[in-house]
Amino acid sequence: MTSKTGSSSDLVDFEGGHNVATLKDKNVLRRTINEDVGEEEPLLASDQPGKPPVTEREEGVTKSGAINIATSMIVVSLAMAAYSIFSDAMSQWIYVEFENQVLGANASLINSTASNPCVKDNHTDLWAKELDKAQSLAARLNIYAMIVSLLPALFTNLLLGIYANQIGRRILFLAPLSGLFIRAFVGFVVAFWKLSIYWNFVGMACIGLTGHLPAIFMGIYVYTADNTGHNKSRSFGMVIAQTAINFCFSLSHLAVGYFIDAKGYAWPMFTASVILAFCLVICYFFLKETLETAKKARKKTFTEGFKEVFSFYVTKGKNSNYRRLDFSLLGLVFFLFSTCLGVSIQSMFLMNEPLCWSSIKIGEVTTYQGLLGAFTSLVLMKALQRCLSDDVICIVSLVSAAASRFVLAFAQYDWMIYVAYTVGMFELLLLPIIRAILSRMVPVNNRGSLFASVAVIEVATFVVAGAGFDALYSFTVSFWHGLTYLVIACCVSLATGLMILFTVTVRKRHWTRVVDVQEV
């Protein structure tokens, strides 16, 4: 089999070695082999039989594509804002409930409230051991919650990714949004009627069975990839999607701080469930399907789909094994970094000694972090793309994240938290850019399977974060408040090394146009 991968004048059909088209401009006709899944399929299926297949467009976003992306971003951003409101209220409510259980009748004596969570300057030394025990119990509940919600999510994300190539993309939004709504409403019922904390496991199971957060992230990124060109507009589009999500997420943190302080914990949960119900309505009636009938994959059995999801990382292609290596390296980087982001100790870390922050202060610093991330994504991202390739931007992002965690590990004063978040301003660029690089390495009719594999990795990271880092915090909080963040910083440093290895490997290779992260 012969081919020309470096020529700018000819394009060879890999199936038979026949000249298909002349590259006079970027809008060309071509065929490619998806070597990693062992299928010879066009990058996009032809709309009409007998006509040559067409590639993904290489220009920017079309008007209809921009409308689709905007609609999906509105839905997901509102959903993430609602879930942020709910998770903030729920995590703080759980800690206060355990605090009341541990202190018993003494809880009323020391006046622990949302504005004074660790009873600073009021019997702090006397009740220090009991408060540490409350933190430990809350951290352990997080572990159980992740087991109940994330183990089902592993299988659900597999199914969603496999069948999104056949039945369309809207299911990737509708399923997880339904789970988020049930989770928030169950949490409200438990908090409002003061039921046992453990009734929350009902909502946790529901959110797991519908895919959890990784499913909705899979939806927004597959949808964005469907509506963007095969160039850096995809990277920027995915960064914008991540920015919109994080911006709404951060603003809601500020709002919920005041909301909790004024109304307690139950009503923010109810508000979150109403917003999520509204998102479901928008998604059902206004979100358009982007996977056209002609481009849908043939129906596959679950076994075939399962193999396809993981074939990117383990199957050797017909030409060489470089793409398998690249998928594996990027998958490891994604796993290590997402594990660090999945840690749910931030609220407890800030609410307790030596910081002892109120809900309002937590909301303020989280909003600051979100605004800084939005500035980085909207303003600095374009500048970085002009002088750096996507893989190098990932390295910058990882270094930023590692430095931020090192500062948090030794944080003793309020200003150190702001320094940590300022140093980590580039970290939000990493995951969307990795997703964009991966999406350019596969044809569109395998994209659902690819993002299903990413979602499975993401679910696994939440499990590891809960079983590992949350447990570590539970056992070490009494003697080193920030030890968990030090371990996280070391993990991110390891991910940085792997990303450097990926970049060096890319530089040493003569890439084809199909997978060249520099050119596309």
Helix-strand topology string: EEHHHHHHHHHHHHHHHHH
Beta-strand portion reads under 5%
Tally of DSSP helical segments: 17
CATH fold-level assignment: Growth Hormone, Chain: A
Question: Mean pLDDT, nearest integer?
Answer: 78
Profile the largest sheet. 2 strands, antiparallel
CATH superfamily: MFS general substrate transporter like domains
As for the number of domains, it is 1
Coarse structural class? mainly alpha
Low-confidence stretches: 1-58, 511-520
Distance between the termini: 25 Å
Which tags fit this structure?
2 strands, disordered C terminus, mainly alpha, two-stranded antiparallel sheet, disordered N terminus, 520 residues, Growth Hormone, Chain: A, single chain
Give an overview of the whole structure.
The chain has 520 residues and is mostly helical. The chain has a single domain (32-507), classed as Growth Hormone, Chain: A. Helices cover 67% and strands 1% of the residues. It is built from 17 helices and 2 strands. The protein has a two-stranded antiparallel ribbon with strand order 1-2. The chain is globular and about 65 Å long. The two termini are 25 Å apart.
